[in-house]
Amino acid sequence: MKPVAVGPDAVVSLKIEMYDAQGALLQASSEPVTYLHGGYGGLLEALEAALEGRHPGESIKAQLEPEQAFGEYDASLLRVEPAARYGAGLRIGMEVEDAFEGAAPRRYTVTALPPARSVTVYRRGAARSNASSTSMPILRPAP
Q1: What is the percent of the chain with per-residue pLDDT over 90, rounded to a whole number?
Q2: CA-CA distance, 143 to 126, in Å (whole number)?
Q3: Summary count for the chain: helices (H), strands (E)
Q4: Whether residues 83 and 135 fall in one domain
Q5: Has this prediction a pTM greater than 0.85?
Q6: Do 64 and 103 fall into the same domain?
Q7: Are residues 61 and 89 in the same domain?
Q8: Least confident of 11-20, 109-118, 127-136
Q9: What's the domain count of the chain?
Q10: Helix/strand/coil for 36
Q11: E-assigned strands of the chain?
Q12: Full residue range of the structural domain in which residue 46 is found
């Protein structure tokens, strides 16, 4: 009996590796990602389309354009904040909720934890300033 192909309402588990345009590994799932196939929002539509009709054990490579994934890079969404603001145990990949400059709270993902050093912080509409901290995590809005 041939294994069932990926199609509507199939429960699919897969390991995902994401690479940048230069081939450097950005992220790899340590555990399989499981989702319900068929446009339920559990996986990017472009990846679902690439998996359609595949069978267990097959592997694929899919190149996604920004509009098929999370959109174009927007440096204005990047924040560099003191690690102490978020407490002990901060790590890359962790999501934190915060509000800045009177805006409504939103979720951010910690994307880097540079070692202790003096960093230059750029903020829209503000002059450049040097800030020192034990660690300055880099945050991006969470999807």
Answers
A1: 27
A2: 27
A3: 1, 10
A4: yes
A5: no
A6: no
A7: no
A8: 127-136
A9: 2
A10: strand
A11: 11-14, 17-19, 25-28, 33-36, 79-80, 95-98, 106-112, 117-121, 129-133, 138-141
A12: 11-68
Q: Are residues 41 and 81 in the same domain?
A: no
How does pLDDT run across 16-66, given as a tens digit for each residue?
Answer: 998 888 888 888 888 999 999 999 999 999 999 999 999 999 999 999 888
What would the mean pLDDT of 112-126 be, rounded to a whole number? Answer: 47
The answer to whether residues 64 and 88 belong to one domain is: no
> Could you tell me if residue 58 is inside a domain?
yes
CA angle in degrees (0–180, nearest 5) for 77-101-116: 65
Identify the CA nearest to 33 among candidates 50, 46, 15.
15
The 3-class SS string of 86-103 reads HCCCCCCCCEEEECCCCC
Domain end among 48, 68, 88: 68
